[in-house]
Amino acid sequence: MWFTERLKNLEDQGLYRRLRTLESPQQSQCVVQGQPMLAFCSNDYLGLANHPALQTALVNALPQTGMGAGASHLVSGHHVAHVELESALADFLEFDAALVFSTGYMANLGVVQALVGRQDAVFADKLNHASLNDAMLLSRATIQRFAHQDTTQLASQLASSCAQHKLIIVDAVFSMDGDCADLVALLALAEEYDAILLIDDAHGFGVLGAKGQGSVFATGLAGHPRIIYMATFGKAAGAAGAFVVASHEIITWLRQTARPYIYTTAMPPALAVVALASLNLIAESHARRQHLRSLITQLRSETANLPYTWLDSSMPIQPLILRDNHLAMDISQKLYQQGIWVPAIRPPTVPQGTARLRISLSASHSHADISRLTTALFSCIS
Ligand SMILES: *Cc1c(COP(=O)(O)O)cnc(C)c1O
What we know:
Elements (H helix, E strand, L loop, with lengths): L1 H11 L16 E4 L2 E5 L12 H14 L7 H5 L2 H14 L3 E5 L2 H12 L5 E5 L4 H10 L2 E5 L4 H10 L5 E6 L11 H10 L2 E6 L14 H4 L8 E6 L9 E5 L1 H10 L1 H4 L6 H16 L1 H17 L6 E2 L6 E7 L1 H13 L2 E2 L2 E2 L9 E6 L6 H15 L1
Parallel strand pairs: 2-12, 4-5, 4-6, 6-7, 7-8
Antiparallel strand pairs: 1-2, 3-9, 8-9, 10-11, 11-14, 13-14
Helix pairs in contact: 2-12, 4-12, 5-6, 13-15
The structure holds pyridoxal-5'-phosphate.
């Protein structure tokens, strides 16, 4: 069969992906197939995935909520736990209203499809997350991709577009590069060309902003009527699920039309309770955010002399560019043998020729963990 050959091609190109199975909770010191590992892979930036307060919230919620939502929101699955979460999100992020989705992937599919169709156009950064790319394909709108962070190219695409409605979509923090979109410039273009701006803050929510309110809040753009802000509970929030906040009008429209909201069983209400508990933890996590920043500084200063290039990132996503797929795999493998788990990221997740180690830091790492990593990196690379 044709896929047998394709699987072999993946192997030959160093692109075959192997699963590693956790036998402990997700945390910096974890157990993988019987081995204790120091992990630098997860998006659990604040170290909340195994926080006891979230477990307690879940256990305490279950007698009130039961397990399954049993139906989609518009049928009978909408629970007071979802309502409370949405209202807390709108308050916390200073937007009019919020809408909860089961995952960030679904939120992106839902928003883009609900807002644009055949007569419309989507303008997307080339390094956007796969869920945004899939969302724009599904929407059937005309797709215009601009070079990474190239707002000049975006401006000329917007100027020459005769689409009925225009939607600009970007990652606020790019998931494989760790750099941040210029939200002020993007919003200015959205205003100039009467577009809406969808900002995916999967990696900024919880990490940026005085209380972890994320990229839009940190940039002073909270509540702007042209912005739709999306983030997930799966990353810094340490839980599961996702949400969108925007104006009342947009949220009302999404509730009526977003297919991954309408045609799927609602998130289990107990998980909405957990997400709310996580929101409260995020708001109080000043010390974790501060510690995380100090770990980033430590990693950058201890590894400045490595013979490969770090991307310019001030976020917990720290990519070391090795270019070659096999080299990236080889170094990742050598680290693994020393008990250090750092993923090699290869195409198609990143462009050809930009294979990398993607080190992600968490507030649950210690300074000693970072020193162990840097020592191991020097020993594997030289
Ligand atoms: C992880 C991620 C998503 C998807 O969120 P999930 O809740 O995990 O489905 C969307 N966008 C970006 C940029 C992401 O990194």
